[in-house]
Amino acid sequence: xxxxxxxxxxxxHHRELHSILVAAPPERALAAAKxxxxxxxxxxxxxxxxxxxxRAPSGALWEAMRANSFRPLGDNTLVAVGKPxxxxxxxxxxxxxxxxxxxxxxxxxxxxxxxxxxLTTETRVFLTSPDARRAFRAYxxxxxxxxxxxxxxxxxxxxRRAEA
Length: 164
Fold this sequence. Notes:
Blueprint: H1 5-8, E1 14-21, H2 26-35, H3 42-50, H4 61-67, E2 71-72, E3 77-82, E4 106-115, E5 118-127, H5 130-163
Antiparallel strand pairs: 1-5, 2-3, 3-4, 4-5
């Protein structure tokens, strides 16, 4: 059974959903999303540098996220716990994502999916306490447009790759 961001975080405070029509079979579209390289996404590389990483990682974006403390939950979903409003995100290694409830953190889930000819990415964020909600709200005001830009750029690059 496939695990989605909705399965990982059925309750959330923030959600971002993006999609694009792709003329390719689901397997090829999903593989293209996972294989899309940071080199294909100049804007995303710049955002990695803004995030405090002097040199943006190279290779596939999916793998770069895994190397940056996101853990797989199923084939097409990544999850993480941290404080993204802090430099470098103050990410935690958490054994049981579903059970984590320590105050002051963001639980984040991101997936890629394919349905009815559309390649999608969904991001959900659950904040574990009121102070985390306040900190994230200020952070999200600045970052949300950039997050959306990242997702849309990624989907466009994956579409080009899948349809090639």
